[in-house]
Structure formats: C-alpha cells, structure tokens
Amino acid sequence: MTDLDLSDIQGLIVRGYRKDVASHLVLRIDEPGEFKAVLRDLAEEDAKSGPFVTVAEDWKDKLAAWWRPPGSDGSAENARTHPGHCINIGFTFAGLQALGLEPQILDSFPEDFRCGPVARSHLICETGPSAPEHWVTSLRSDEAHVIVSVYADSHDELAAVTEDICGRARDAAEKIEQFDAQRLNGTDVEHFGYVDGLSQPTIEGAPRAGLKDPFPPVPAGEFILGQPAFRKNRVPDQIGVNGSYAAFRVMRQDVVAFKAFLKTESQRLGIGQELLAAKLCGRWRNGEPLAMRPANAPGATIPYENLNTFDYESTPEFPQGDRDGVLCPRGAHIRRAFPRSQRVVDDFDGFKRRIVRRGMPYDWELPTGHERGIVGMFICASLENQFEYVMRQWLNDGLFTGGRLGRSKDPLTGANDPGDSRFVTPGTPYVETTGFPRFVTTRGCAYLFLPSRSALRHMAREGVPLAANRGH
Amino acid sequence: MSQQVAQRDENFGPGQDKDIQQPLTLVMPIDFKSVDTLTELLQRADVKMASAAALDHVGTVHSTRFVILRDDEQGWAKIAVIAIYDGGFDEYIRVFARELGPLFNQLISFVTDEDKPPLPVEQHVEELVRYVAKRDVKPANGRTYSAFPDLTALDIYEATRPRNDGAPSPA
Lengths: 472, 171
Fold this sequence. Notes:
The complex is a heterodimer of chains A (472) and B (171). With 472 residues, chain A is of the alpha+beta class. Helices cover 21% and strands 18% of the residues of chain A. Chain A has eleven helices and ten strands. Chain B has a three-stranded antiparallel beta sheet with strand order 1-3-2. In chain B, helix 4 (89-99) packs across helix 6. Classes of the chains: A alpha+beta (472), B alpha+beta (171).
C-alpha cells in the first residue's frame, strides 16, 4: 500500500471540493521577496496567518480552526461538515524563475513544463482558432507566474477570500487576470448539457473520491511526484516530492453550434437528438454510459454510484464487452479520453495515461460577446506522457486503437475541421456524420507545478527540511 | 473494374491514404569488418524475442525487417531497417527510441556515419529523429503498395484475433 502524506499534498490533486463557485487568480510576481512572505502564510494552516492552501488530509477535525474571511461567522449549515472555501496554488516555470529559485532546482524540471504550452501548442493540437495567438493575453505571455485557485460555497465567501488574498499580495504581485467559474444551477452539468466529471481515477493510497471504480487503483506516482508510477518521472530537486503538474485550461464551448448540429443532424439521420448526443459523448446527457444503457433501453435506471462500472473489452467482470463499439462508438469522447481495457498503441490497455480533471463551467459577458465554457485543471505527474499524449494521440487522432477510426478526432472536444471531420458508429442505428466544426476552442492554457506544502515552505524560506526525495 | 485498379494505383498505398500507413527504409553504412558480429547480434534469440515483444507493445508496426547489404569486392556494407508503420514519423522514431533503445544503441555503434546520433539514443531522441529522417530512403516512385492501405496494425490485429465476447471469431 502506498504511504501518502496527505497533509503535504495539495487537496485538489486527490479530491474535488464540490464547491459552487471558483475564481482562478493569475498573478505576476513583481517583488519576489515580498511574495515569499505571502507564500509563507499560505503554507501554514494557521487561521491567525490568514487563508491557507488546502491539503489532502481529511478536514473534519479542522473545521473549527479554518480561516474565515472578515465578516464571516462560519455559522452556515455546511460549515459543520466542510469548509466554506478551499485554496490551491500553482506556479508556471516563469513563476518559479521570477521567485528566484536556484538554477539547480529550475534545471531539474522536465522539458515539457519548462517550455510550457505556448511553445508546445503543436503537441497538444492547439492550432487554428485554438492557437496561442488567439488566447487571452495573460496566458500567452511570460507574465502569468502564479495561479491561485479559490473554490467556495457562495459568491460572498469567494469574493471575500479572493479579496483578502489579493490584498495580502498587493505589494508583491499584480493580479493580471481572474477567471471566474460557477456550477450551473448547483449541478455537475456543463454547457453542452452533459453531466461532467464522472470518471476520475482512484489514486492508490488516497481516499476514494469519486464514484465506484471497478478497476485497480492507479499508482500514486501518476499524479504525485516521488511515488511509484507506471513510467519513471523526473522529480525536481528539493521541491518535487509530493508535488504534481496541471494543465490549467480555459475552453470555450460553442453551445449555439453544438445545439444546431444536434438538431439538423438528428433530423437528417432520423434519430433523436438525445441519442445523437449520447453517441458523440459515449454517455447520455444524464451521465448514463451507452455501454450500460443501449439506445433502446429506458433511461434513469442506473444508480448514480454505478455510472462507471463498465468496460469495453470482454473481461471476467464485464464478459459482454463492446469491442466493436456497437453500444459506445470507438470514436466517442469518453472512449477516447479513457479507453479502459481496450487495446491501444504504446500500451496494452488504456489505463496508463489517466488524468485527474477538475473543471467548472464559466459564463462570461465580454466586450466581444457572451462566452461559455469550462475552466479547470488537468492534473498528472507527467504533462508529456499523460496530458499531452492524450490530447494529441487519443483526442485528436484515431490511430491509437482499432476500430478503423483513421485520422479522425474526438467529435466533442477535438480540433475538428468541417473539411475532413467524420464520426461513425456501427450498430443500430448506424450513424455517420461528417463536416462538423470544432465545438470547443482553447482560450488559454498554462502548465502549472503544484508544490507540496513543505515545498511551499521551502520556496518561501529556504532551509526547511523536506520530505525524502525518493525519486521514482 | 479497370477504373477501380486505376484508382488504387493513383491514390492508395502507404503514405497516400490519409497518412495512415507509412514506409521506412532506413539505410546506414556500417563497418565492413563488423558485419559478422552484427549478423550474430541480430540472429540472437533473446534479441529477436525482445524486439518482437517491444513491437507488440508499440502496436503501430505492420512489418519490419533488418537487411544487410554488402559488397565484398568493394569492401563496404550497410544495414537497412525496413518497416511499414502507422502515423507520424517523429512519433514513430520517438517510440522506437524508448521501446527499442538498447537494440538501437548496439546497431548504431556499428554505423560509420560521422553525424550519427550520440548514444544512448534514449537520451538523444531528437538527434535520432533527425538522423533517421536524413537516412530514410524514399520510394523511387513515391508509392508503396498495400493491400489494406486504410487499416492500421491494430485494426488488422483486432479483426483477426479470436474473440471471447460471444461474437463470431474470425476463421
């Protein structure tokens, strides 16, 4: 059994907070010395020092001592079971440089993180309208140093916490952007209408945070540096252990185009819009997987807890399987993002490139118009082997597995071009649709290092003992 | 029928059909005096088994073989690595460096090119990619025939492999 120090690992890595609202503050460090003082307070779980970074250990015994923003008495009903807000922090490579870390530490970070998503946009298929030149300014510059993410139960608490953090950092850093997000009507539904975030990996040694998972836990080192992993990951010197990486992404959803596509294509194909939506995703919009609820079966019959208990290959646990994609198309979104025991290239199954996803919808009124999408983190221990690989090989190409996908892309999130986009599903009804556009466009991306609490202390004031660098 | 054949000749084949199958003909000069040693290496059972296991793991290779070209009168020799694979060239070579690094390291130690990549290739992947691209001999007519140009190795593997889910297995 993996021994994880949950008091050292940022909480977001091992569990979602299920908060209703969030703000991601993009900071530029102007005074590294002053900013270290801010970090020092954020690293200490001491309400007297102000707000602090949320770690992964159980918070049930800590609620009384949780920091509360001025004016909050903590009397809300939910304060008895969970805190009113959670905070996490990530650094870009430019941020680590701005903080003045030693060259030996900086040089020990892997190339993917050091280069960042702008330089590596071709490796994650951020092209055309998703190319960096179209991103929000803050995320295509070297000025995005730190992203502080605050998740809260209410707008009031969120505003109070973010205001407090910005106030404390006032003399040290400039807030150059703020991305706000909010659950839609308190649900887990995103703007295309699908229940989102259902499939999350179970991390070995961490408390199970999601739905019932029929598969073996994923080695912790796939998400937490310094722990055993499928592949050997480079652990940055001194501050790497118990840290992780995240691709922070802002993704615009073209809801109007998606709805129009569902309407016109379902009419042309002679099938219901909901069935077409389910075929594209691999789940019905209420979250029920096609692999468990075929086209002609009644809906809303699968217990929520069981929405992940299926597989595509025939296994002892799931003898039926769905290798041909008769139930869930081989090219559907969830089957690309997580192929389960299906044979894939470079591996014998699809279990070795899992990613923790923490996203929340946004809905902004901008000078350029109304914009909807998802903002959040894709968390993993290797951006190259997990996030970038899945983006490039699984979501934006079809050669990674059988099923005659050709060079096709994920119909929901892929960088599709009407000139060659194609989605086919066998079975009844047979669906073949072509000429559809991309429905999701990247508005910005940042590669973040999510340091452990002890690493934060070290970054704030050198000399504090660190967890042993096991360097798996 | 003749129209179909004409269409195949013009538009089908590795490298032509949506870039699914690609040919590789990597030809590298080797030390003539080492030909026997290199041949022995390639014929070793453990090397053949390790190569096959790595290729199975990769899953994008349709076929591959090593061929030694030699002219005893002139006193030169070359080794050719010939393959049909799926997908992009760079990705293919990177995967090979990772999966078959030890074999490539031994192979390249016999190569006499001055600009050959430094070893081990696992730590010099991009240099290997550039070197292989330079030494990849393209088909003279730009074509490579394939009977199944629009199928990947995994498409074929799945279509021919016995099933255990109740569906009919291939004969």
